[in-house]
Design a protein that fits this description.
single chain; mainly alpha; TorD-like; two-stranded antiparallel sheet; 12 helices; DMSO/NO3_reduct_chaperone; nitrate assimilation; metallochaperone activity
């Protein structure tokens, strides 16, 4: 029997990309990194393309490799154009389970546990004096990065650190497919504390097995107030 006719009954075990060393950033550099990453990870609509020149200029003051990653990403988006970039965004984030931008999904998937996880996110925002918009679920990575940039609160740092596993799974998936968005997630990872061995082992499990798949509704969240400091909305 020719080798080429054999079925693929075994595959090479998945591995994680190399660990990234955190960069020493000032508070201002970390704030700018998180705000720019938040905007670049959003859906690239017409408004997204109108502000990339401003984001490119803001990236120039960030240290390497973060600044060059942002500028290179913006160059690729500008060259691709809105329609092609939007199609690639949807293909990447809406159609691939391991490329979710919703952090609690990596640990709970579409199971009943996710409801409790989302409530925890909402309570954390409110504990810091903020509230998430009703337009997105509270575990949306760009929203959490915006919260970190705007608040500078220890709560936002703790939320990001607590979900490093999910961010690392997202990074692994994006790097594995050669996605341009991998460079943005790498920048986020390098702005956060290093991941320990136990965490990386849990990440590898998620990379291999994927999130749980029990589907449930999330309508219990109801209407949430806008994402703004309490008392200023």
């Amino acid at each position: 029997m020719a080798v080429t006719t054999l079925r693929n009954r075994v595959t090479r075990q998945r591995s994680l990309p190399a660990a990234l060393e955190p960069l020493e950033l000032t508070d201002g550099q970390r704030t700018r990194t998180h705000m720019i990453a938040s905007l670049l990870l959003d859906y690239p609509d017409e408004l997204w393309f109108t502000r990339i020149d401003t984001l490119e200029h803001a990236s120039d003051s960030l240290p390497d490799p973060i600044g060059t990653a942002f500028v290179g990403f913006i160059d690729r988006a500008r060259s691709a154009g809105p329609l092609a970039w939007q199609r690639e965004y949807v293909t990447t984030f809406d159609l691939k389970r391991k490329c979710s931008l919703y952090l609690s999904y990596f640990a709970t998937g579409d199971t009943r546990k996710r409801g409790s996880a989302l409530v925890t996110f909402i309570e954390a925002y409110r504990a810091a004096g903020w509230a998430p918009t009703e337009d997105e679920l509270p575990d949306y990575l760009p929203m959490l990065l915006e919260f970190s940039a705007k608040s500078g609160d220890d709560v936002s740092a703790a939320m990001l650190t607590a979900h490093l596993e999910g961010i690392e799974v997202l990074r692994a998936a994006l790097e594995d497919m050669g996605s341009p968005w991998a460079s943005i997630v790498r920048a986020v990872v390098r702005s956060l504390p290093v991941v320990d061995r136990a965490t990386r082992e849990r990440v590898l499990d998620l990379v291999t097995e994927g999130p749980p798949t029990e589907t449930v509704g999330l309508s219990f969240l109801g209407n949430l107030p806008p994402f703004s400091p309490k008392g200023t909305a």
